[in-house]
Every structure is written in structure tokens, then in C-alpha cells.
């Protein structure tokens, strides 16, 4: 199944989950109503018949019970959703994690961070925040609402016990959850189930209420009965929710295992990681009490296996290993000893040598290769792309990589990326920055200038991705000043170049993610008009003259089966209008987005080749539409 089908199915699954949740709430209302009626009847020493429920309670009481149960569940869910509004960070902190991106202290932590960065560059998603869970168990997770707020969590045990290949397999498994939309569904499950769990907690509160005199206890008998019923029905609802959660999670774990093998072309990496869990005294069981709540998002079971296999959120280790390594004999290695080994440089493979040549020289991409990439590359990573991510990261000087991990220096790098190649324009931009940016940032820019000038142009998006975690660490006031300075930098020459907008759009999308709802339009044809405007901007980007731009624009419209309309002038292509068009186009149904991206490729095509800067633009549009596109090898056929 491709990325767009996954996204469409994820939406369907979300709707199904909400429907099942509503059904569970209705069931709880019915059961609670029956229990209340039975308690009232028995307290009056009268027999209870379900057919007489209206006579026993009355319509007002029935409505009140339904309202109270619905309100309790809704408030419980809303409270949890509010807690999780910050995305994956909220989950990571609940599990006791601390951010690693800007504070890697030793070789093991740096190796883990390097693997995540390589995988992010290879998949075309922003580098996620990496959280270290100080737990000796071997486990990991991905959490968040979308790739823009996703985090990767790794336990101390996974860093200490897994080799590079094994850790890469685990990280690839978690990236699969990000790309397939599993993290959003997992967050929804946590929020919805919390509402049902509140029913049981309220029952405990009623049942364990403050004791008083014997007379008061007699008066409280109905409340005690109601409390006991809420405990039973609340946990019955939770049991049903856990069954749904377990069934969904198990299938997605198998899919993520298979995707990890596809990413790395190394089935033994992830298989050996699972074996080490099986041979480890601490296994994968986390000590955090939140492991129960978030157990379904973990790489392996975060708590002791349930006696009821139907409640297990993960398939048994032997089953997962056998799928990955059919010849496995059922033996687990002794993982309790120190397993750390320094990574030894491996001789480059033929694929890596080919990719190294590509990363060293920027080359155009054949038109058909760019067109095929829309169908075959978006969120579908393979071994050459992972190797390319590794090579692209290697082309970025170590001093630049270190600067990208620092919130202060990362701003200087982004300013550098938006500088014009034209010397006079660049001088004007630097004079502007000297007035509006922090003096120390300007000094950092000068310090990093030689390395930035040597940076290959096809590594620019990769460098932006590296800077994302550090820029997320800016306090709100710092971020707003930084964003304001970027906009002024873009407007410094009185016009917006499309490549400038592409870099800016990738950055802002990664840092802010959710579209500005004020930019949306309720007009019937708003989506079509947004697509037209995007294609107009693309047409002008590759053509300085009007007629060639008009022909390119009309080719794009034809590919989208849109009516031919006049091409907007280049002066009409402004930053606010481009941002609004992208915000509207982002809401395009998943299965329709490939056509828009193919229309972009067709609009860019002039002579059968797509230039490297134009591929950067294509990837920026794809990224803004929540369709992460990996780097495209220029010599693909």
C-alpha cells in the first residue's frame, strides 16, 4: 500500500475509532441506567424488571444519567487531548524522557542522534526531537500528531545494548509509524480511552467516599451501589477499548517491522534487536507508570505480558522474529553483559559509491524520474535512499552539524541559506541583518561563512532539517523575532524568488505544522484556485518570459483537468498569497495530492530535465502538503 492510500485509510480508521468510541459510550449509558434502576428497586425491597425502567427512574433521571455519563467521558477525553496537544513531546516527558538533540554527551548518544538524522534526511521529514528515557530496558517509540511534531524516544538500554545496525532497524521501525500516520491514531486512542477510564475512576471515588455514621452509610447505599457499577462498567469499557487498541497495534507492528527491513535492506538488524530483548533480564518492560497508558506505541511490550493474549498490544517476540528470520532456531543471546561496540568503518558498497558521486556533484533529474518519484518515493524509503541520507549528512561539515544543534547558531545557518548569490543583493541583505539580528548571530554567520559557501546546494534542505530541533528550543519571543527577520530578509529586494519561498516554507512548516485556520477559504472552488496559483508560481519560477511561463502553466492545468485560465503576473506571486494557497491545498484529500504534485513536475519540465533547484522546490511543495519526499537521485532512470 502506498503513502496516499495509507493516509486515506488512516482517516477511515480514525472515523471508525470515533464510531466505536460512541458505541462504547452508549453501551455504558445503558448499563449504568440499568444498574441505577436495579439499585433503586432493591433499596426499596422491590423486584426489578428491565421493562419497568422508566417507571422506576422517570424520564428526567434517564436523561440526567445519559447527560452525566456523556459529560464525564467527554471531559475526560478533552482533558487528555489537551495534555497531548503539544504532540510527541508530551508523551516523551510523561515517560520521563529528556531531549537529546542539543545535549548529546557521549558516543552512544551521538550515534543514536546520527542514526535518527540520517533516517530523517532519507525520508524527507524534519529531524524529530530525540528523547532519551533513562531506563535500562530495551525499547523505543514514536509519538506525535504528525511528522512536524513527532518525536523519537529511545531508552538508555537500547543505546547500551544494541549495535548500530540493530539500533538503525529499531529507528527505521519507528519512522515507519511516523510515515504511515500511526502516531496520530495512537494519540487519538490514548485520548478517547482516557474518557472511558474516567468512568471507573469516578466509581472508585463514589465507592470510597468519606465514611460517616451508620445512618449516613445507609443513606449512601445507593451511591455505593452506583459506584460499584461504575467501576465494573468503566473497566468493562476500558477492556473493550484495550481489545480494539491491541488488535490495531499488533497489525501495525508487523507492518512497521516489514517497513524497517525495506528501509535498511537488513532483516537481521531489527531481528537481532528483538532477540536481545528476549535474552535480556530486563527485557522491554519500562519502569514508568505511564507505560500502561502508552504501551501500544512502544517498539516492544512495555509491561509484563497479559494473561489474556487478546489484550497484548504487541505480537509475541518469537512470532515477530520468525517473520523477519524464518531460519531462526529459537535461541536468544545473553544480553546482560556489556554489548557496546565501537562502529567500524565499512568499505562502501556499489550503491554507496554511486550515491557518493551524486552527492558530490549536483546534477539535473530526468523528467520521468521526477514524475515516478511522486508515486514511488513519497514516504516509501529504500536502501539507496537511506544510503543517500547518510552521504548527504556526510557532505555537511562537522562544524556546521554542530552549529545546527545549537539554538543560537542554527539561526545564523538559516540566515546564510537565504542569502542571494548576487553579491550586491547579498550585501544589502547583510546590511539589513546587521540592523535587525542579534550582533552575536552576525558574528556567528561570519565565523561559519567559509563552510557554508562550500555547502553543496542539494544539502540545503538536509541542513534545514538538522536545524529544526534546535530552533524548536527557541522561546516564543526569540522565535517570533527570528521569523520576523526571515520575512524581512525575503522582502529585502522587493520581490520573492520562488527558491527563497521554498526554503522558508519547509522551515515554517516544520516549526509550526498546523495551518493557520484564518487563511482557509469557504469558497466552493477554493481548492482549485489554490492549485492554479501554486502552478502559476511554479511556471514563473522556471521562465523569465511570459509566453514560456504561460505554456508551462497550461500544461500543469491540463494535467489537473482544470479549466485554462489567464496566468497571474509574476508581480502577483507574493509570500502571503503563496502561503494561503499552500494552506488551502494542504486540505486536499490524500488520494488527490499525487495529481497536484505530478502537475508541479509537468509545469517544471522544459527539456526533459528538472534542475536541482527545481527538485528542491518540488520537495518543498510536497513537504508543505504533508507528503514527505526523500531526496531524488539525479541519475535515476
Automatic annotation (TrEMBL):
Its cofactor is Zn(2+). Residues 109-325 form the Peptidase M48 domain. InterPro entries: HtpX_protease, Peptidase_M48. GO terms for molecular function: metal ion binding; metalloendopeptidase activity. The chain crosses the membrane at residues 61-79, 189-207, 219-244. Keywords: Cell membrane, Hydrolase, Membrane, Metal-binding, Metalloprotease, Protease, Transmembrane, Transmembrane helix, Zinc. Signal peptide: none annotated. Pfam families: Peptidase_M48. GO terms for biological process: proteolysis. This is M48 family metallopeptidase. It comes from Microbulbifer okhotskensis.
Amino acid at each position: 500500500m502506498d503513502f496516499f492510500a495509507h493516509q486515506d485509510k488512516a482517516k477511515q480508521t480514525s472515523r471508525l475509532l470515533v464510531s466505536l468510541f460512541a458505541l462504547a459510550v452508549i453501551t455504558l449509558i445503558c448499563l449504568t441506567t440499568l444498574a441505577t434502576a436495579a439499585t433503586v428497586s432493591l433499596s426499596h425491597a422491590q423486584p426489578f424488571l428491565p421493562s419497568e425502567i422508566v417507571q422506576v427512574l422517570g424520564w428526567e433521571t434517564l436523561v440526567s444519567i445519559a447527560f452525566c455519563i456523556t459529560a464525564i467521558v467527554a471531559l475526560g477525553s478533552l482533558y487528555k487531548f489537551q495534555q497531548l496537544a503539544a504532540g510527541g513531546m508530551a508523551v516523551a516527558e510523561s515517560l520521563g524522557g529528556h531531549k537529546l538533540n542539543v545535549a548529546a554527551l557521549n558516543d552512544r548518544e551521538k550515534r543514536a542522534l546520527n542514526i535518527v538524522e540520517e533516517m530523517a534526511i532519507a525520508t524527507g521529514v524534519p529531524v524529530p526531537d530525540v528523547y532519551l528515557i533513562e531506563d535500562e530496558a530495551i525499547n523505543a517509540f514514536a509519538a506525535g500528531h504528525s511528522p512536524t511534531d513527532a518525536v523519537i524516544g529511545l531508552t538508555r538500554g537500547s543505546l547500551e545494548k544494541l549495535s548500530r545496525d540493530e539500533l538503525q532497524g529499531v529507528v527505521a521501525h519507528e519512522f515507519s509509524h511516523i510515515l504511515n500516520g500511526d502516531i496520530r491514531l495512537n494519540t487519538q486512542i490514548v485520548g478517547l480511552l482516557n474518557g472511558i477510564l474516567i468512568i471507573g475512576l469516578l466509581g472508585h471515588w463514589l465507592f470510597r467516599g468519606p465514611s460517616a455514621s451508620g445512618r449516613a452509610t445507609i443513606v449512601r447505599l445507593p451511591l455505593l451501589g452506583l459506584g460499584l457499577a461504575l467501576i465494573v462498567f468503566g473497566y468493562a469499557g476500558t477492556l473493550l477499548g484495550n481489545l480494539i487498541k491491541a488488535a490495531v497495534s499488533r497489525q501495525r507492528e508487523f507492518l512497521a517491522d516489514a517497513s524497517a527491513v525495506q528501509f535498511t535492506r537488513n532483516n537481521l538488524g531489527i531481528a537481532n534487536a528483538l532477540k536481545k530483548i528476549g535474552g535480556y533480564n530486563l527485557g522491554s518492560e519500562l519502569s514508568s507508570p505511564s507505560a500502561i497508558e502508552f504501551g501500544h506505541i512502544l517498539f516492544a511490550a512495555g509491561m509484563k505480558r497479559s494473561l489474556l493474549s487478546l489484550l497484548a498490544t504487541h505480537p509475541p517476540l518469537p512470532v515477530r522474529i520468525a517473520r523477519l528470520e524464518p531460519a531462526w532456531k529459537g535461541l536468544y543471546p545473553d544480553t546482560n553483559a556489556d554489548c557496546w561496540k565501537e562502529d567500524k568503518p565499512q568499505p562502501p558498497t556499489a550503491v554507496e559509491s554511486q550515491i557518493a558521486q551524486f552527492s558530490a556533484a549536483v546534477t539535473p533529474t530526468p523528467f520521468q524520474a521526477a514524475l515516478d518519484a511522486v508515486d514511488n518515493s513519497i514516504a516509501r524509503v529504500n536502501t539507496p535512499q537511506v544510503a543517500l541520507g547518510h552521504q548527504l549528512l556526510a557532505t555537511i561539515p562537522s562544524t556546521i552539524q554542530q552549529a545546527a544543534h545549537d539554538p543560537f547558531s542554527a539561526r545564523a545557518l538559516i540566515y546564510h541559506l537565504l542569502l542571494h548569490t548576487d553579491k550586491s543583493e547579498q550585501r544589502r541583505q547583510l546590511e539589513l541583518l546587521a540592523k535587525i539580528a542579534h550582533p552575536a548571530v552576525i558574528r556567528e554567520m561570519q565565523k561559519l561563512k567559509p563552510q557554508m559557501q562550500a555547502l553543496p546546494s542539494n544539502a540545503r534542505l538536509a541542513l534545514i532539517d538538522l536545524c529544526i530541533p534546535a530552533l524548536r528550543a527557541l522561546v516564543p519571543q526569540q522565535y517570533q523575532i527570528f521569523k520576523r527577520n526571515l520575512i524581512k530578509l525575503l522582502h529585502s529586494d522587493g520581490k520573492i524568488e520562488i527558491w527563497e519561498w521554498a526554503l522558508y516554507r519547509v522551515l515554517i512548516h516544520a516549526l509550526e505544522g498546523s495551518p493557520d485556520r484564518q487563511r482557509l477559504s469557504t469558497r466552493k472552488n477554493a481548492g482549485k484556485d489554490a492549485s492554479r496559483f501554486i502552478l502559476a508560481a511554479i511556471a514563473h519560477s522556471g521562465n523569465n518570459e511570459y509566453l514560456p511561463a504561460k505554456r508551462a502553466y497550461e500544461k500543469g492545468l491540463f494535467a489537473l483537468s482544470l479549466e485554462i485560465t489567464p496566468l497571474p503576473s509574476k508581480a502577483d506571486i507574493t509570500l502571503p498569497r503563496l502561503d494561503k494557497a499552500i494552506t488551502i491545498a494542504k486540505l486536499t484529500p490524500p488520494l488527490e495530492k499525487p495529481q497536484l504534485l505530478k502537475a508541479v513536475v509537468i509545469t517544471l519540465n522544459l527539456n526533459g530535465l528538472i534542475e536541482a533547484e527545481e527538485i528542491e522546490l518540488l520537495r518543498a511543495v510536497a513537504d508543505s502538503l504533508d507528503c514527505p519526499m526523500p531526496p531524488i537521485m539525479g541519475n535515476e532512470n
